[in-house]
Specification:
With 391 residues, the chain is of the alpha/beta class. It has two domains: 169 residues, 3-Layer(aba) Sandwich (Rossmann fold), CATH 3.40.50; 205 residues, Up-down Bundle (Dehydroquinate synthase-like, alpha domain), CATH 1.20.1090. Helices cover 48% and strands 12% of the residues. It has 15 helices and ten strands. A hairpin with a 4-residue loop joins strand 6 and strand 7. It is globular and about 70 Å long. The model has no long low-confidence stretch (mean pLDDT 97). The structure holds 5,6-dihydroxy-NADP and zinc ion. 5,6-dihydroxy-NADP binds next to helix 2, helix 5, strand 6, helix 6 and helix 10.
């Protein structure tokens, strides 16, 4: 295991009705004037936003509102939010929604207290200071409720880029699984795919002897495989929603990723797809991940065979471990299809003609030096080959 530091100070309030305590948590973490940030309207329609406002009012906390965050959140609204926060003297950003709303909130929180252009953070500058952020999560997916990361798309060129910094870990996150029951099946499945992808990105490592995190990842993947069909069949299944929601947090706050090299090439390739076609992140990952696996598995057949046996229940073929490894990749494809995820470029609405550009941006954008991936280093030509496997 490699040396590591791990600091994850987020206070989690999990379960039914927790959103009604939002005002108390804002107060506890130092907020007196809040930016209430939300998406395209689901939290208005469900009545959640009204309950949160009531909770703030009950605690005597003032707020200003900014809705309209789009999936794959855009820079324009971030600039607007920064201006609003400065004008109104906001000292706390409360995100009510999914990963996109949380990421937009984090960008505003960092940008408000920064003299330069907030986009600097998305070009490699570490976020060291930000207003405190609280979250009320409505979809189990991105894991932004526990992560130090944010992903924003710059409208000038449609570049989708990430920023990071411990200052971006939410001060508190409210996770009520009931709030996810209004999700359309497609969004639920996208979330499940993203959660599993965060686990795969960490599982495929070159670091030896990482049994504790291997086993944690396998346990979370098994949970997702168990719960996904239950929640797709019955969207109101509280217990399944609850297990998925906590798995989503654990998959990405890096408790499963410490002490080991990680990959992340699939996320880099997916971000090009969602920047180019505005597809849902989870749907993009459903197409990217099996193709990436197909391309790289020969680099460590035994690790792929281990995943196949421990997670997908494949019988180990000791005479031909490659067969076992491939059976695991097939099992993942079957699973993703069973929950309604796309399997190729056509189903995603992506086009072969864009492959060269996406491969170039994936390898050279964001200050990258021409290759991506910590498990296997992929160069532009490899990325082209992997995109071609998705056709
Ligand atoms: O905008 P509203 O109306 O709220 O609708 C949203 C949106 O259309 C809807 N939705 C959310 N909760 C709902 C609901 N509809 C009904 N009932 C509910 N309870 O779902 C749609 C998707 O929402 P979004 O916030 O975009 O989803 P998600 O949480 O998957 O976030 C995706 C974004 O997170 C980034 C992705 O790249 C993408 O931009 N990521 C962020 C990460 C991080 N910060 O750590 C890591 C991830 O790997 C990921 O890259
Ligand atoms: Zn993701």
């Amino acid at each position: 295991m490699q040396n590591f530091t791990f600091y994850s100070p987020t206070y989690f309030a999990f379960g039914k009705g927790q959103e009604n305590n939002a005002g108390q948590y804002v107060k506890r973490f130092g907020g007196s004037k809040v930016l209430l940030h939300f998406g395209g309207g689901s939290v208005v329609r469900s009545g959640l936003l009204d309950r949160v406002k009531q909770s703030l009012t009950n605690e005597g906390i003032a707020y200003v509102e900014l809705g309209g965050v789009q999936p794959n959140p855009r820079s324009g609204l971030v600039y607007e939010g920064i201006e609003l926060c400065r004008k109104e003297g906001v000292d706390f950003v409360l995100a009510v929604g999914g990963g996109s709303t949380i990421d937009s909130s984090k960008a505003i929180a960092a940008g408000t207290v920064y003299d330069g252009d907030f986009w600097d953070f998305y070009q490699g500058k570490l976020v060291e200071k930000a207003l405190p952020v609280g979250t009320i999560l409505t979809i189990a997916a991105a894991g932004s409720e526990g992560s130090p990361d944010t992903v924003i798309t710059h409208e000038d060129g449609m570049f989708k880029r990430g920023a990071t910094g411990e200052a971006l870990r939410p001060a508190f996150s409210i996770l009520n699984p009931e709030l996810t029951q209004t999700l359309p099946a497609f969004q639920t499945a996208c979330g499940i795919t993203d959660i599993m992808a965060h686990l795969f990105e960490r599982y495929f490592t070159t670091t030896k002897e990482v049994e504790v995190t291997d086993r944690m990842i396998e346990g979370l993947l098994l949970t997702m495989i168990h719960e996904a069909p239950r929640v797709i069949a019955d969207p109101d299944h509280y217990e399944a929603r609850a297990n998925i929601m906590w798995a989503g947090m654990m998959a990405h706050n890096n408790s499963c990723g410490v002490g080991r090299a990680q990959d992340w090439a699939s996320h880099d390739m997916e971000h090009e797809l969602s920047a180019t076609y505005d597809v849902a992140h989870g749907a993009g990952l459903a197409v990217v991940f099996p193709a990436w696996m197909q391309y790289v598995y020969k680099n460590d057949i035994m690790r792929f065979a281990q995943l196949a046996t421990r997670v997908w229940g494949v019988q180990m073929d000791f005479a031909d471990p490659e067969k076992t490894a491939l059976a695991g990749i097939h099992a993942l494809r079957r699973f993703l299809t069973s929950i309604g995820m796309p399997g190729n470029f056509a189903e995603l609405g992506a086009k072969a003609e864009d492959i060269p550009q996406m491969a170039k941006t994936a390898c050279y954008g964001n200050g990258r030096g021409g290759s991506i991936g910590g498990f296997v280093a992929l160069h532009e030509e490899d990325v082209v080959n992997i995109y071609n496997l998705m056709l």
